[in-house]
Structures are given as C-alpha cells and as structure tokens.
Design a protein that fits this description.
Elements (H helix, E strand, L loop, with lengths): L2 E3 L5 H12 L4 E2 L6 H4 L5 E2 L5 H15 L2 H7 L1 E4 L3 E6 L4 E4 L4 E3 L6 E3 L2 E6 L7 E2 L2 E5 L2 E5 L6 E5 L4 E3 L2 E3 L1 E11 L4 H20 L4 H17 L3
Antiparallel strand pairs: 1-13, 2-3, 3-5, 4-16, 5-16, 6-14, 7-8, 9-13, 9-16, 10-15, 11-12, 11-14
Bound molecules: nickel (II) ion.
Length: 226
C-alpha cells in the first residue's frame, strides 16, 4: 500500500523544524546507508544522535501517535527515530531497496523495516526535481508533497530520489515495524477499518458495524505480532 497522509505536521511545526534544521550542521548522507545503497546515495543528513534530530524526531513521533490515518494504515509496533536529509546542487539517491533491519543507534532496539516514510519539510515550489519515485506492481509513482505531508510505502519497494536542480529538498525519513509484517494483510485490515468508519457515520448504530468490528479485531488477533 502506498498512502499519502496530509497534515502530519501543521504550519507552525514545519516552520519550527525548518528554523532548527537551517541552523544545524549537516553531514554526508552515506553514514546511514547500507553497502549497496551507499554507492547510489548523494545527499546530506543530520547525524542520528544530533540533539535537533532527537527533538524534532520526538515532535514527529508525537504527531504520528495522534494521526488516526497513520495508525490505521501502519498498525505500528515500533517507529525508528526520524532522521533528516537535504538534497541540493544536483544531489540525488539512485534506485535502491531500504535495509531490512535497522538498529537504533546507541541501543539494542532493532526495527524491521516494513514501511518507509518520507515527511516533506520543504514546499514543492522551493526546489526543482527531488521527486520520490516508488515502483510497485502498478508502475512508478512520483511523489512530491507540500511541507507537513507524508508518504508511507512498503520498504520492499525499489525507490529513488531524482536530482534536485534548484533550491533544497528537506525531509524527514524513517521506518516502521508494523504489527503486521505482510503488506497484503495490512492493506485488507486498513480497507476493512475504512469501510467500518464510513458505515458508522452513514448508518449509526447499524448492528453490522459491531459484527464487522468483531471481524476486524479477530483478524488482527490472528495476524498481529506484538
Ligand atoms: Ni530509501
């Protein structure tokens, strides 16, 4: 499932993030790349243990917890602490698949990357290029969203970031280990959840809503790893 989630951060939060990121010292993005992706990766990154990464990361994690669309779609078990990157002056990230397992720096916590997320922190008008291109069985999707919006996609997908030829593309990126490893099962539950929400709005108190909610939870119980 590829899902665009609007307004994860509000304008004030985006402005605060941009102020703090503009004042920070960026490093070569290859510090977090795997062996294969290091060759394709040309960008700048904020170090994982940088205090600004931690502070803004916590702000994003808080926003995600309150975002019902994110929770319903990702069914998150663990979220990797958000990282931050910057592309400018022709920088790009060639086609790659994200590492399957990531260790949170300085801890023994490991995150299986079921879903990848990019949260845009620059407006599309601020830069040329920089589209996130994601391949799935339906073709290639080109993603470039307003600041504060986020895209969620299976970490198993091949993806790349096109060269930024004007301005700077600033974003947060991170991974989610879902309670459901399987994308197809997760998508079914998300569709069921969405249908139940619509039913309860359109026909309040219909007994089928209760029955379908039971089906939702019994499938989740069957499939979830927690
Ligand atoms: Ni990637």
């Amino acid at each position: 499932m590829l899902l665009q989630i609007p307004d994860v951060l509000n304008a004030e939060q985006v402005a605060q993030a941009r102020r703090m990121l503009d004042e920070s010292q960026w490093v070569d993005g290859r510090v977090t790349a795997g062996h294969q992706s290091a060759r394709a990766k040309r960008n700048l990154q904020l170090p994982e243990d940088h205090p600004v990464s931690r502070q803004l990361g916590d702000m994003i994690l808080g926003a995600l917890q309150r975002n019902s669309l994110f929770v319903a779609a990702a069914l998150p078990l663990r979220v990797f602490p958000p990282l931050f990157n910057r592309y400018e002056g022709g920088q790009s990230f060639g086609n790659h698949v994200d590492n399957a397992v990531r260790q949170v720096s300085g801890t023994s916590v490991r995150v299986r990357t079921d879903l990848s997320a990019t949260l845009f922190l620059a407006e599309p008008e601020e830069y040329d290029g920089g589209e996130l291109l994601i391949e799935d069985t339906y073709g290639v999707h080109s993603i470039k969203m307003p600041a504060g919006h986020m895209v969620l996609y299976p970490s198993s997908s091949l993806h790349n970031v096109r060269a930024v030829t004007r301005g700077a593309r600033i974003a947060s990126f991170f991974w989610i280990q879902s309670m459901l490893r399987d994308d197809a099962e997760r998508t079914l539950l998300f569709d069921l959840d969405t249908a139940i929400q619509r039913l309860t709005v359109d026909i309040p108190d219909h007994p089928a809503a209760l029955q379908l909610t039971g089906v939702y939870h019994n499938l989740l119980r069957r499939w979830a790893d927690v």
